[in-house]
Every structure is written in C-alpha cells, then in structure tokens.
C-alpha cells in the first residue's frame, strides 16, 4: 500500500469482522445498449483488486452479488468518495441530495480480468475501508498487467411522468472514461448476496427485470445437474437477456433446467405473466384474475432467506408487492414450505430507493 493511501485510510481498531467494505473508484470501460430497456455498463479499476474475491478474481462466478453504486451529483467532476466511519451513513444522508448524489443497489452481472491499460491509475487513492476494517487484507502484491472488470445491467425504467430514476439516468448517458464509485465488500469479506440453495439444486426462480442480471449471473454458477424452472418477467419482447448474453451457452450446459424470459404483454400487469406461468408449472387452476396491487408499506422490508437444506429451493426477487404475491401463491397454492423460499423485494413501485 502506498504512503499516500496509508495517510488517506483511517485505521481504527482491527476487528475480526468479516463484513468489511470500502469505496471503490472505477472507470467506465464499456457501455452497450442491450435492448430497449437495458444498458450494460462495464467498470474497471485497479482498486477492484481489493474487492471481495468473487469480484477481484474476475471469474464471472459472482452469483447475485450486489454493490451500492454512488451516483454522483450532476455537477461532480469525479467519483463520490465517502470517508467511512461509524457515522458515515448519517453524515451522508444529512447532506442535500444535490451535493451528495444518490446511492443505489445493483447486481454484478459478470466479472473478468482485463489488461491494465491505464484506464484507472488511482489504485487505492481515496478508497477508505470502513472503520474497524482489518487493512492487512490489502497488503498483498497486486497482479501485474491485469485488473478486474465488472458488468452492471441497468434497467432503463421511467416513472409515470417519463422520468428516469437517477441511477437509470446516469447509466443511460454513461461514457467510456467517466469515473464513478461504489461500495462493496473488501477482499476476505463475505459477498453481499442472498443466493443460498441446498446442494439438491432443484430450483424455482421467479424474477423481474431488476433481478434479470442476478438470474444470468446465478445461471453461470450452476452445476450441470441443476434442475427446475427459471422464469424472468421483462418489460418487452427485445429484453430477453439470455439471447443477448452468454447465457444461451450456459443453459446448453444445464439440460434439466427450463429457462424462460417472459415479456410483459402491452395490456398485462406487473407480475401477471409470472403468476400465470407459476400456475402452469404446478398444474394449478387460476381461481381468480391476477391484479397488481401495491401492498407494501413505505418502510416495509420485503426480504427473507430460505433455510439451508431446502429440498426445492425457491428464489423470488423483483418488485416488492409482486414478490409478496408470488410467495403467497407458492405457499398457499403450490404447497411449498416457507422455509424453502428466499424472497427479495429489490424495489418498490412508485418509491425511490432511499
Ligand atoms: C440486491 C439488489 C440488486 C439489484 N440489482 C439490480 C440490477 O442489476 N439492475 C437494475 O436495473 N436494478 C437492480 N436493482 C433495483 C434497483 O436498485 C432499483 O430499481 C432502483 O430503484 C433504481 O434506482 P433509480 O435511481 O434508477 O430509481 P429510483 O430513484 O430508486 O426510483 C425512481 C422511480 O422509479 C421507480 N422504479 C425504480 N426501479 C424501477 C424499475 N425497474 N421499473 C419501473 N420503475 C422503477 C421507483 O418506484 C420510483 O418511482 C437491485 C436492487 C437490489 C435490492
């Protein structure tokens, strides 16, 4: 670690905590419009050598790992850097949004090693590991000539007034060479991830477009004997990410797994196609017409993990009220035990991520 970095890094007491995280400055190294509703932004930087191994090893085995993107305010000339200590969150939230920008959660859809082409020559500068971080994890020789790169697939969603959210807006106009930053676990710390299936690998995955990147990334990690059904509802016909990614290749390796991307019909409601397909997977009769209803309170956390060793593992992620409905259907209609279900409300209709 350089002397400059040592000065920048505030070290408090070293703890045995395995949840250490830092702010990683990175450079946009690629922008690819995948479809009408998705843009893929690639981010690279030598700082990523110090991220949790799933990211820094660049093997693409990232599961549903997520990071916290620090969307810079409009006038910012560089990435948002936050000095992390016990009170950083309160301090950051107390600032006017025009000054601090926004923090948004995104999945690392893929990771790889790329040649270190000098895109980002600021390895650790300005990276502040959290208070109590054990900085010894950073003290290792870095691989020469290569650096990690990750992909984030952003949904370009609009609100009723046709406005993109701040993160979607940032992604829609991202340029190669631009700098940004995100929070992620440090090397040696656990991945921020919810994927926890039993070894049986008999799966049911129900996801929407925001969890399409997690779906792709998880498919990449599955063993050849994985079986079950993966259903992902997306906004439009062109949004079949499996066609647009390397996942077709991946699914060829998984003959016992049915993977379907379900474009929303012009008149269908959010979650309707998932609910319909779920009924046909279990040969259930649809007793009532599906209607999307917002049943999630503003401060409600729709999140729970399946117990280990579940026989059939169910992973439901996407819009919170849809997730609640699908979970209820799985339990009440399909007879799946609650303990077998991981459910994650990734976002709430009509409400910005705080
Ligand atoms: C663990 C995790 C992983 C995630 N991974 C991804 C990912 O890989 N890709 C991704 O695109 N999103 C992902 N999300 C969801 C993403 O964090 C939210 O969609 C977030 O609200 C987007 O921020 P924003 O600034 O664009 O919009 P916000 O400012 O948060 O919201 C503005 C408005 O847009 C609405 N809105 C937000 N998202 C959508 C949407 N998708 N469709 C329609 N309306 C929407 C909100 O309800 C609100 O009314 C993930 C969330 C979690 C918790």
From TrEMBL:
Superkingdom: Bacteria
CDD domains assigned to the protein according to its UniProt record, in alphabetical order: siderophore_interacting
UniProt protein name: FAD-binding FR-type domain-containing protein
InterPro entries per UniProt: FAD-bd_FR_type, FNR_nucleotide-bd, SIP_FAD-bd, SIP_fam, SIP_rossman_dom
Domain FAD-binding FR-type: 21-192
């Amino acid at each position: 670690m350089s002397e400059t970095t040592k000065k920048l890094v505030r070290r408090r007491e070293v703890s045995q905590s395995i949840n250490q995280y830092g702010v990683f400055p990175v450079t946009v190294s690629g922008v690819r419009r995948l479809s009408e509703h998705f843009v893929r932004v690639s981010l690279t930087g030598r700082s990523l050598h110090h991220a949790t191994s799933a990211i820094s090893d660049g093997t693409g085995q990232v599961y549903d790992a997520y990071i916290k993107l620090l969307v810079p305010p409009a006038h910012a000339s560089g990435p948002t850097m936050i000095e992390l200590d016990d009170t950083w969150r309160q301090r950051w939230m107390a600032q006017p949004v025009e000054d601090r920008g926004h923090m948004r959660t995104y999945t690392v859809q893929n990771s790889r090693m790329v040649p270190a082409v000098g895109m980002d020559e600021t390895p650790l500068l300005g990276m502040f590991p959290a208070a109590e971080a054990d900085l010894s994890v950073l003290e290792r020789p870095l691989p020469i000539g290569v650096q990690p790169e990750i992909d984030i697939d952003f949904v370009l969603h609009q609100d009723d007034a046709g406005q993109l959210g701040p993160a979607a807006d940032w992604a829609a106009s991202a340029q190669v060479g631009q700098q940004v930053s995100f929070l992620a676990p440090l090397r040696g710390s656990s991945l921020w991830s919810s994927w926890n299936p039993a070894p049986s690998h008999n799966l049911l995955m129900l996801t929407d477009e925001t969890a399409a990147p997690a779906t792709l990334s998880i498919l990449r990690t599955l063993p050849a004997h994985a079986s079950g059904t993966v259903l992902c509802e997306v906004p439009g016909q062109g949004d079949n990410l499996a066609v647009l990614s390397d996942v077709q290749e991946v699914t060829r390796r998984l003959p016992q797994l049915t993977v379907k991307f379900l474009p929303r019909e012009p008149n269908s409601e959010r979650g309707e196609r998932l609910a319909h397909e779920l009924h046909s997977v279990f040969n259930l009769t649809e007793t009532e017409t599906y209607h999307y209803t917002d049943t999630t309170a503003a401060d409600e956390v729709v999140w729970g993990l399946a117990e280990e060793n579940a026989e059939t593992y169910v992973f439901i992620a996407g819009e919170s009220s849809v997730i609640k409905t699908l979970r209820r259907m799985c339990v009440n209609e399909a007879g799946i035990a609650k303990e077998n279900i991981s459910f994650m409300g990734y976002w709430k209709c009509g409400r910005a991520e705080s």
